[in-house]
Amino acid sequence: QVQLVESGGGFVQPGGSLRLSCAASESIFKFYATGWYRQVPGKQRELVASITSGTTTYTDSVKGRFTINRDNAKNTVYLQMNGLKPEDTAVYYCNVVSVVLGNIRPYWGEGTQVTVSS
User: Fold this and answer.
1) Three-state SS for 14?
2) CB atoms within 10 A of CB 53
3) Taking a C-beta distance cutoff of 8 angstroms, is the pair 66, 81 a contact?
4) DSSP letters of 25-78?
5) How far is CA 64 from CA 6, 28, 43, 110, in A?
6) How large is the average pLDDT for residues 99-108?
């Protein structure tokens, strides 16, 4: 089973920056999609950014502030977060999706907490 380990979360003041990392247990090159989601208690998990078939997508609320990138050689996906706002506070989850013989299967990390507050 694919294992994903996130790191880089923490406490930061509004306007600050954090860089999240997601290390995968195997090559990320083969995955159909890689990305980041976030979730706060009582709310639905939200897609933040993803790379799918070479196309990068961001949710509107983070455009211009967040950047998703990946290093295939290191099996790592990154999320650079700049200009952080209190509403960015959430648990951030790394996600990869495999598609094999028509089966779509997502894999999730355990999550890393990001707290933006004065």
Assistant:
1) coil
2) 6
3) yes
4) SS-STT-SEEEEEEE-TTS--EEEEEEETTEEEE-GGGTTTEEEEEEGGGTEEE
5) 23, 25, 24, 26
6) 90
**Banded model confidence at residue 63, pLDDT cuts 50, 70, 90:** very high
Q: What is the CA radius of gyration of the chain?
A: 14
* pLDDT computed for residue 28 by the predictor: 78
Give pLDDT, residue 118: 94
User: What sign has the CA pseudo-torsion 31, 34, 40, 43?
Assistant: negative
DSSP state of 83: S
The whole-chain average pLDDT of the chain stands at: 95
Query: 6-26, pLDDT tens digit by residue?
Result: 999 999 999 999 999 999 998
Question: How do 76-81 and 90-100 pair as beta strands?
Answer: unpaired
8, 21 Cβ separation under 8 angstroms: yes
- Residue 112 gets which letter from DSSP? E
Q: CB 47: neighbour CB atoms within 10 A?
A: 13
Q: Give the total residue count for the chain.
A: 118
The bridge status of strand 76-81 relative to strand 18-24 is antiparallel
